[in-house]
Design a protein that fits this description.
Blueprint (H helix, E strand, L loop, with lengths): L15 H12 L18 E3 L2 E8 L5 E2 L2 E2 H15 L3 E12 L4 H18 L2 E10 L7 E10 L2 H10 L19 E4 L5 H9 L17 H10 L2 E5 L5 H13 L2 E5 L7 H10 L13 E4 L4 H9 L8 E7 L5 E4 L5 E3 L13
Parallel strand pairs: 5-6, 10-13
Antiparallel strand pairs: 1-2, 2-7, 3-4, 5-7, 8-11, 8-12, 9-11, 10-12, 13-14
Helix pairs in contact: 2-3, 2-6, 4-6, 6-9
Length: 350
């Protein structure tokens, strides 16, 4: 691939195969081997001296949508990246780039969203930076948040439980997956992407679906107290399809899921059909996918069902060694491969 003759497209920032290739072809050259879990892992964050460090930038359009705004989204996304690796987030940085002419009233609404979501997650905004660009040079506002997290005692308990059948890594990573692990989704998928689409001007449809944007760190602590969690990841850009393909690729195992078990709101299903989208490729901002040792499946589900953010949790499949990639068993009993999407079908959802 001759990268010098190519240009960056929206697909390169939408998760999926285009973004995966861009990162591997361009950015992985920055990796110098530093960290217990480094850049080469292509995970939700890095682990350095037993501290999780992650960063993310947000360009969502529109900046105010059903169920939240760019401020809530920025805290949620970074908190969840730390939580999905098995860490407890403690502090965030906040970088804001504003377009000249941006309304101060709107900025205060966004910072209110940041503050309320940080309190909800139990984290602190401790440092930041602000820049202003000329009118027309950016689309309103861009936010970057970086987060640090520590190893909670619950993860040690989780690791001890896993050692009954395996020798896992010290954090929640795909290499922990083993044949027979159950795949659990903590709630209905597609809510965030459909909320964003229905909030955009000119889309031509209206549904009563709010974004699921929510910090999941307390939910993750609850399930880690139960034990048996091998890995966790939030299905953001590229959705469930990209996440499961990432797990299959990194673990060298296959993943088998059942369509009838995948939780989704009827309004989301109707919108997906109307727009010709693939439900499995839609981004989410308040759901997690867990790989769980089979003997802990029911206990993990019970813990999720007692949590407001996990009340719609379902076990949708399992990890297998006799297949490759990701296979979906359809409602009518057929089977089809689920490939890694080219990119999220809904650009700028986060």
């Amino acid at each position: 691939m001759n990268m010098e003759k190519e240009i960056v497209t929206l697909l390169h920032g939408a998760g999926g195969s285009y973004m995966n290739s861009l990162i591997k072809d361009v950015f992985l050259g920055l990796y110098d081997g530093y960290g217990e879990i480094g850049l080469n892992a292509l995970d939700d964050g890095a682990v350095i001296n037993n501290i999780i460090f992650t960063t993310d930038s947000y360009t969502v359009r529109p900046i105010f949508f059903k169920g939240g705004n760019i401020g809530r989204l920025s805290v949620t996304g970074t908190v969840n990246d730390v939580a999905m690796m098995g860490g407890q987030p403690i502090a965030l940085s906040l970088g804001v780039v504003l377009e000249e002419g941006f309304p101060i009233q709107d900025l205060k609404k966004i910072t209110d969203g940041i503050l309320s979501t940080a309190k909800e997650a139990g984290v602190h905004v401790v440092t930041g930076d602000t820049k202003v660009m000329e009118r027309g040079k950016i689309d309103g506002i861009i936010i970057n948040t970086a987060g640090i997290g520590v190893r909670p005692s619950q993860l040690d308990h989780n690791i001890q439980n896993l050692r009954k059948t395996r020798e896992p890594k010290n954090w929640l990573v795909p290499l922990n997956l083993r044949p027979g692990d159950k795949i659990i989704v903590t709630g209905t998928i597609g809510d965030h992407a459909i909320s964003i689409l229905s909030s955009r001007e000119g889309i031509g449809f209206e549904v009563n679906v709010s974004s699921d944007a929510a910090p999941l760190n307390r939910t993750m602590l609850n399930v880690m107290e139960v034990g048996g969690v091998a890995d966790a990841k939030d299905p953001t850009r590229g959705g469930l399809a990209d996440l499961l393909n990432d797990w299959a690729e990194k673990s060298g195992l296959g993943i088998y899921i059942k369509e009838e078990k995948i939780p989704a709101r009827e309004e989301v299903k109707s919108a997906v059909e109307f727009l010709g989208l693939d439900l499995l490729e839609l981004g989410n901002e308040g759901k997690a996918v867990l790989a769980v040792s089979p003997e802990y499946e029911n206990d993990v589900l019970n813990a999720l069902w007692s949590d407001p953010l996990g009340k719609d949790a379902q076990s949708i499949g399992e990890v297998r060694k006799d297949i490759e990639g990701v296979i979906l068993e359809t409602i009518i009993g057929g089977k089809r491969y689920i490939s890694r999407p080219i990119g999220d079908p809904v650009p700028r959802i986060c």
